[in-house]
Amino acid sequence: YDEMKKKVPLEVVALTELQGLGPKRVKTLMTELHVRDRAGLERAILAWIAEGVDAPADESRFDSLAVALFRLQFEQGAAYRRLCAAFGADTGVVGGWRDIPVVPTGAFKEARLAVFPPEATIRVFRTSGSTPEARGALHLDTPALYDASLLATFRAYLCPDVERIRFVVLAPPADEVDDSSLSYMFERAMR
Predict the structure, then answer these.
(1) Which among 49, 35, 107 has a CA at the least distance from the CA of 77?
(2) In angstroms, how far is CA 50 from the centroid of its own chain?
(3) Any idea what the Cα angle at residue 109 is, between residues 96 and 20, rounded to 5°?
(4) Whole-angstrom Cα distance, residue 184 to residue 125?
(5) Structural element, H or E, at residue 62
(6) What is the DSSP letter of 53?
(7) First to last CA, the chain
(8) Mean pLDDT, to the nearest integer, of 1-5?
(9) For the chain, where are the E strands, in sequence order?
(10) What is the DSSP letter of 70?
(11) Degrees to nearest 5, angle at CA 162 with 159 and 164
């Protein structure tokens, strides 16, 4: 046992416990993408976003990250697991990113779709409430991926030729509507 422990790091065991994540994909995640846990997965995604929108497309890398994220969310998110079951999807069915079920926007009105405990929530974005039903909610325990994705696309598509651009925002400031993702995005983009 001790000999095996030296050869197989605990992180490998933890990743293989994500049902359906086979040895080949675990090897790719660990050796090429340096993913050993949720934090490592987030670092790998952030690193890819940081490469910019002009980075060469890498279907294999995208597929490995997407499937690893799916498996993490499936294993650790009861509401997401139920949603997947309704679509007939589980870790045995999802072999690539195209097999991952799309989450309908209405699901965010029905359940808390997060893989961390409620007390770890630092921000909740809610839908506008334009329908009389309950408002949808996106719970975040870190804004890192949200911010990185926003800023990379903002720079690439809204002001690709200038470092800074002057614009006027006709929306309330984020501190007045802390559950508005739109106001949050405007504030982040203006920094």
Answers:
(1) 107
(2) 15
(3) 25
(4) 9
(5) helix 59-76
(6) T
(7) 53
(8) 46
(9) 123-126, 137-140
(10) H
(11) 80
What is each CA distance from 46 to 141, 148, 151, 164, 181, in whole angstroms?
15, 7, 12, 22, 20
d(CA 117, CA 14) in angstroms, rounded, equals: 19
3-state helix, strand, coil in the chain (%, to 5): 50, 5, 45
Q: Which amino acid is at 175?
A: D
Structural tokens at position 159: 């002001």
In one-letter notation, the amino acid at residue 62 is F
Q: Are 156 and 53 contacting, i.e. CB atoms less than 8 angstroms apart?
A: yes
pTM of the model: 0.76
Tokens of 8: 């197989």
The burial of 67, by beta-carbon neighbours within 10 Å (0-12 exposed, 13-18 middle, 19 or more buried), is given as buried
pLDDT band at 117 (very low <50, low <70, confident <90, very high): very high
Asked if 102 contacts 52 with a C-beta cutoff of 8 angstroms, the reply is no
Instruction: Report residue 126 as tokens.
Output: 């809610």
Residue 38, H or E segment: helix 38-50
Tokens 């995640």, residue? 29
